[in-house]
Amino acid sequence: MFNDISSPMTLLQTRRSGKPRDMTAPGPNAEQLRTILEVAARTPDHGKLAPWRFVIVREDQRDALAALLERAYRADKPQAGRLEIEAMHQFAHQAPTLVVALSSPKAESKIPLWEQELSVGAAIMNLLNATHASGFVGGWLTGWPSYSDMVRDSFGTAEERIAGFIFIGTPGRPQDERPRPEYNNVVMNWDI
């Protein structure tokens, strides 16, 4: 069983992101989403900078997002084919709930940029854990839209970057496990 909420440790041990293309309704309601995002904000943050922001894209805004992605993609790749454009529209319409996570570094801070970027990743992980703890499934995608300046400019400023598109919903089909790293391949004792 994935995302087993019988205990905090069991949830972490069984945590599994969902594939946004497989997500269906329901997604979290406004109150549940607010709670999820409040949990996301309770993340390690050296200097208390909150070097991240979250932008909610409502379901009734998905056509506008699809149009934006198509315009930006065509501007970047004028020879784009039908299947590429369809993929942008499909991306915009996945899952019932979408949150765009932005890396919003504070350049004036003495806290290194690297630490601020780590905090963004931690905030998104908290968002996913809160999503799963709330009985939903979440998926963190990047891909071409995350690296488009035109797309980024519609959500933030030139100093910001899209850290990911976080899709939230209910699994539309049984989830499959994915390969996980072997413990001994990623953990070692320090030998001096």
Features:
192 residues; alpha+beta; five-stranded antiparallel beta sheet; 8 helices; 42% helix; globular
Helix and strand sequence: HEHEHHEHEHHEH
The number of helical elements comes to 8
The overall average pLDDT, rounded, is 97
Major sheet, described briefly? 5 strands, antiparallel
Q: Structural class of the secondary elements?
A: alpha+beta
Q: In angstroms, what is the radius of gyration?
A: 18 Å
What share of residues are in beta strands?
A: 15-25%
- Number of DSSP strands? 5
Termini separation: 41 Å
Q: Approximately how much helix is present in the residues?
A: 40-55%
- Ranges where pLDDT stays below 50 over 5 or more residues in a row are none
Task: Name the overall outline.
Answer: globular
Describe it:
This protein has 192 residues and is α+β, with helices and mostly antiparallel strands. It has helices spanning 8-14, 30-40, 62-76, 82-92, 113-133, 144-147, 149-155, 183-186, and strands at residues 23-24, 52-57, 97-103, 137-141, 161-171. Helix 2 (30-40) packs antiparallel against helix 5 and helix 3 packs antiparallel against helix 4. The model has no long low-confidence stretch (mean pLDDT 97).
Give the helices and strands, then pairings.
Elements: H1 8-14, E1 23-24, H2 30-40, E2 52-57, H3 62-76, H4 82-92, E3 97-103, H5 113-133, E4 137-141, H6 144-147, H7 149-155, E5 161-171, H8 183-186
Antiparallel strand pairs: 1-5, 2-3, 3-5, 4-5
Helix pairs in contact: 2-5, 3-4
